[in-house]
DNA sequence: TCCAAGTCAATAGC
DNA sequence: GCTATTGACTTGGA
């Protein structure tokens, strides 16, 4: 999205008003729809547009996002969750009509919102939408309407049913995305979803502990030993790194909010998160594998023949296994993992270090690259608790591993290293 | 080509 | 029927 034509503080101010204060009402303008062609059909035919743009006629969502002041992502998701549960509204309905996202994405987003300053423009979009939705005085009402309409349509379909020739006529009444009503007929031969066995995951985690960025050769070896496709191994590493990173964001925020305890005038997430964390539902699940370990689910692939766990490729280092945290995580929201996927280069390019500095200016402007020090500088006040201290220590160690990895890589490429020590 | 970020969608479990 | 999890995919940057 191009930069806004508006300049200076004025635009920011008006935007701030738009995003932060209750807006007039959600318009039904199609302008608001800035969906990609591939977007779920959700919004197209629906009265509720994903974005209220009233007062800012032609502003696209991208423009809004670009000009948006820093939002409290945790506070926003917390409120959204409250509103949804209070009104018995589902994530699917909300996601598809308001955010243009699927249920799974919404769940993820609500459970593990990233801090604003860590989000790309695209990643900020749903939060801006959520904020705008929260600001809409009729938000619940409209969603309820949608729900009713969906139900109606469903009933109608059921009655007139079996003659399901209905070419998916979701029309006004929301869409039945739910059960295989996929308009794409030709997608017959879907390959079954791969479900990794617990032993496989364990092995991969151990490998990750040793090398978060395994070489192609290592990947190949892992794949062979675990009898997985290399692409599966690659994907797993990508996903794992990414999800661990996300857990760390949450850790940061939690630690930051603890250490700051009302000290800052930062407009952003800290306070919201503090409250949020008490729910204990957000960050202890994903990588801890609390629900997953020990139960291979689904029609999984043939399990690793012969080799399985005994064939695990790499020895577990003493403090590895995020899972060990999982066993205790029920009682705490402390991070489930003991490693960090941070890569200095990425971080320095894309994120302005830690939220604890909270000097982030409103909006997604250019952000100061963090020094290595800042990458390490998890708020020490959090050290008041030993467990957390240990966790952070582990993470720092893992950080070092990553940095070493990066340094090695950089050295081998002879690319200039710009990090400051 | 590799990676991060964002997302989808299948699936499990409640 | 709902939410959470997670393997796979898409996009974009370097």
UniProtKB/TrEMBL annotation:
<feature type="region of interest" description="Disordered">
    <location>
        <begin position="1"/>
        <end position="55"/>
    </location>
</feature>
<feature type="compositionally biased region" description="Low complexity">
    <location>
        <begin position="1"/>
        <end position="11"/>
    </location>
</feature>
<comment type="similarity">
    <text>Belongs to the CUT homeobox family.</text>
</comment>
<feature type="domain" description="CUT">
    <location>
        <begin position="62"/>
        <end position="149"/>
    </location>
</feature>
<feature type="compositionally biased region" description="Low complexity">
    <location>
        <begin position="350"/>
        <end position="362"/>
    </location>
</feature>
<protein>
    <recommendedName>
        <fullName>Homeobox protein cut-like</fullName>
    </recommendedName>
</protein>
<feature type="domain" description="Homeobox">
    <location>
        <begin position="187"/>
        <end position="247"/>
    </location>
</feature>
<feature type="DNA-binding region" description="Homeobox">
    <location>
        <begin position="189"/>
        <end position="248"/>
    </location>
</feature>
<feature type="compositionally biased region" description="Low complexity">
    <location>
        <begin position="301"/>
        <end position="311"/>
    </location>
</feature>
<feature type="region of interest" description="Disordered">
    <location>
        <begin position="155"/>
        <end position="192"/>
    </location>
</feature>
<feature type="region of interest" description="Disordered">
    <location>
        <begin position="256"/>
        <end position="394"/>
    </location>
</feature>
């Amino acid at each position: 999205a191009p930069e806004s034509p508006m300049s200076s503080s004025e635009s920011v101010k008006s935007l701030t008003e738009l995003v932060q204060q209750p807006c007039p009402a959600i318009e039904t303008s199609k302008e608001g729809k800035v969906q990609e062609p591939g977007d779920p059909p959700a919004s197209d035919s629906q009265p509720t547009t994903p974005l209220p743009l009233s007062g800012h006629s032609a502003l696209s969502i991208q423009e809004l996002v670009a000009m948006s002041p820093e939002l409290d992502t945790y506070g926003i998701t917390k409120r959204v969750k409250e509103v949804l549960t209070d009104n018995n509204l589902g994530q699917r309905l909300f996601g598809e009509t308001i955010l243009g996202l699927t249920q799974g994405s919404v769940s993820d987003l609500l459970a593990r919102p990233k801090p604003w300053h860590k989000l790309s423009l695209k990643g900020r979009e749903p939060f801006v939408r959520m904020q705008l939705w929260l600001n809409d005085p009729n938000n619940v009402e409209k969603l309820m309407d949608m729900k009713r309409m969906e139900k109606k349509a469903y009933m109608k379909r059921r009655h007139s049913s079996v003659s399901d020739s209905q070419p998916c006529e979701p029309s006004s009444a929301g869409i039945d995305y739910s059960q295989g009503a996929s308009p794409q007929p030709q997608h017959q031969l879907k390959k079954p979803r791969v479900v990794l066995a617990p032993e496989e995951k364990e092995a991969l985690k151990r490998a990750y502990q040793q090398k978060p960025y395994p070489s192609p050769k290592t990947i190949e070896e892992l794949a062979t030993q675990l009898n997985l496709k290399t692409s599966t191994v690659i994907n797993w590493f990508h996903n794992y790194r990414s999800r661990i990173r996300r857990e760390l964001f949450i850790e940061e925020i939690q630690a930051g909010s603890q250490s700051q305890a009302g000290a800052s005038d930062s407009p952003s997430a800290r306070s919201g998160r503090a409250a949020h964390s008490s729910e204990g539902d957000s960050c202890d699940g994903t990588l801890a594998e609390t629900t997953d370990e020990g139960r291979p689910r689904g029609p999984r692939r043939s399990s690793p023949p012969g080799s399985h766990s005994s064939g695990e490729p790499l020895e577990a280092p003493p403090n590895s296994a995020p899972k060990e945290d999982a066993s205790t995580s029920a009682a705490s929201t402390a991070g489930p993992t003991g490693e960090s996927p941070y890569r200095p280069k990425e971080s320095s390019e894309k994120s302005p270090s830690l939220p604890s500095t909270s000097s982030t200016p409103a909006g997604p402007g250019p952000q100061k690259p963090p020094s290595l020090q800042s990458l390490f500088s998890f708020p020490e006040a959090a050290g008041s608790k030993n467990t957390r201290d240990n966790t952070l220590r582990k993470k720092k160690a893992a950080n070092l591993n990553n940095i070493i990895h990066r340094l090695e890589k950089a050295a081998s490429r002879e690319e200039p290293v710009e990090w400051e020590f």
